[in-house]
Amino acid sequence: MTAFDTNSAASDNSVFQGTEDGVDTPANDLALVQIIEHAYETAGTTTRRDLEIETQWSAAELDQLLDRLESKEYAELIGDSDRQMVVLTNRGEILARGRR
After folding, report:
1. Is 14 left (phi over 0), alpha (psi -120 to 50) or beta?
2. Stretch (H or E) spanning 58
3. Rounded Cα distance, 97 and 39, in Å
4. How far apart are the C-alpha atoms of 37 and 15, rounded to whole Å?
5. Strand, coil or helix: what is 14?
6. pLDDT tens profile 53-96
7. 70: which DSSP letter?
8. Paired strand residues for 86
9. Which pairing describes strands 45-47 and 75-78: parallel, antiparallel, or unpaired?
């Protein structure tokens, strides 16, 4: 029988790092994965217009998704919203390659 060690330090790994809905990274959000995979298949870049056609999401939905990708540093948004390019960052490309 092993005694419980009361002198051990608390583990930093025990801190909950998720969110209430369980989706805490783009890798867990299928919509974000769809954007990342589409951009990866088109040499790491795509346009907002291409995504609107490809996904059938509303402009508001796409805005939220792209803002989330950019805030998590998986993509960079370049240009005005009507002619915007979506360019994967290294982090986004790594995620896309890891899903293949």
Report:
1. alpha
2. none
3. 12
4. 31
5. helix
6. 988 899 899 999 999 999 999 999 999 877 899 999 999 999 99
7. H
8. 46, 77
9. unpaired
Question: What is the C-alpha to C-alpha distance for residues 2 and 95, in angstroms, rounded to an integer?
Answer: 42
Count CB-CB contacts under 10 A for residue 65. Answer: 20
Asked whether the predicted pLDDT for residue 13 surpasses 50, the reply is no
> Hey, which residues does 45 pair with through a beta bridge?
87
Locus of tokens 């769809």: 34
Which residues have C-beta within 8 Å of that of residue 5, sequence separation ≥ 6?
Answer: none
Instruction: Please name the residue ranges forming H helices in the chain.
Output: 30-41, 48-55, 59-71, 90-98
Residue type, 45: T
Cα distance between residue 37 and residue 30, in whole Å: 10
Q: What does the block give as tokens for 74?
A: 């998986």
Three-state secondary structure call for residue 22? coil
The tokens describing 85, both together, are: 């390019």
CA distance 8 to 21: 32
